[in-house]
Structures are given as structure tokens and as C-alpha cells.
Amino acid sequence: MCPDERHDHGYDLAQGGELPIRSEFIAWAEFLQISGVHPSRLGELIELGWLEPRRTAGEGYLFRRLDVYRTRKLERICDDFELSSLGGTIVVDLLDRIDRLERRVRELEAQR
Fold it and tell me: What burial class does residue 57 get, using C-beta atoms within 10 Å of its C-beta: 0-12 exposed, 13-18 middle, 19+ buried?
């Protein structure tokens, strides 16, 4: 799906243009609105390489919807534990890794 096929509110047109289907990507302004993160923090997370949005032809950014969830989690952790952005990203990445490993253990146990 090309970025120029995007329409407002994260929706794309279905084939034939009848019904909109939800896109997995959202633009910068929508990301800020949904996540509540400050633009400078968002820029910092991109510079750190923690968020890797796609670039549009017009030099804009498209973020995954999962990035909103991860960024909200980061904001809560940084606020609750008074961590820097870098410290918070490390914690969120470790929590995500623990979650994936626990899921994998459950899958392996279910195969027994």
C-alpha cells in the first residue's frame, strides 16, 4: 500500500473504493493525538532508533499502530520511575522480550 493512497483517520479505500479498511499506519499528527506524547519526545525516540517510522514521499512519517501502545507504555514507565527516554526504552524492550518468551514457553508447554 502506498502512502499516497492513505485517507484521513488511518483508513484506506478498499478495492473499488467502496468501503474504507483500517490501515496499520498512522501519520505524525494522529500519532501525537492518540499517544499524547510531546513532539520533541517523539523526535527523540526516532533519533534513538527506538521508533522506526516509514518515510512518505513528502518527508512525513507513518507509524505502526503498535508504536502508539509501546510509546504510551514508555511514557507511563518514564513518569512512574522518573526515567530518561533511553532508560525507559530499555525497560519497555525488556518487558516486551519477557512477554514474547512467556508466550513461547506457553506454546511449547501446550505442545507436550
Answer: exposed
